[in-house]
Write a structure and sequence with these properties.
- The protein is built from 2 helices and 14 strands.
- The chain has a 6-stranded antiparallel beta barrel. The protein has a 6-stranded mixed beta sheet with strand order 12-11-10-9-14-13, with no helix packed on it.
- The N terminus is likely disordered.
- The chain is elongated.
- The chain folds into 2 domains: about 110 residues, Beta Barrel (Elongation Factor Tu (Ef-tu), domain 3); about 55 residues, PRC-barrel domain (SH3 type barrels, Roll), CATH 2.30.30.
- The longest helix has 5 residues.
- The chain has about 200 residues and is mainly β.
Amino acid sequence: MAQSCRPTHSLAGDGRSAPADRPQPAVGRPDANGLLRVGYVAGSHGLRGALRVRVDDSDATSLADLARLFVETAAGPREFEVRSVTALSSGHLRVVLDGIDDVSAAQSLRGAPVMAAVADLPPLGDRQFYYFQLVGAEVITIDGRRVGAIEEIFPTGANDVWVVREGEREVLIPAIADVVKAMDLSARRITIEPLPGLLD
């Protein structure tokens, strides 16, 4: 999320995305209800109903900033008030939700997706963005040539890399200020100035 789990990301490359082998990473798009998946219930934690939540973005820290979360159930997304969020091992959080008060109730949610409302996400600073805002965005060059659309995002350590595809063609775009010249998230369009050889 510029995520709470680390909710925001910037062109400086300080953001992180979920590894490709993590199920349904948080770079996905919000659903029709405006809910964005942030992880899933990996099991219970303790005897009083706390959940062990595996987050899709292991660097996220912002779930603790949210007053509510949603858990997918057979009847659809169920809203819960968040009582507390505590970091456990890497990629896991201890989440206490109002109304989940014992191990049985917690275990009944095992495997269920955990979601946050996009409207609840913390506001972002200048040149910051959430990963989900980029997925599907069109990438063009400064002279107007279409490169393709962003389909995936992954970290390299120094910066993020956007996987941009146009048909069978795939281009890896480094998310650095020397390349990314303009971002119009409302129009879902990003303008780049390719480095020599980037689009070859």
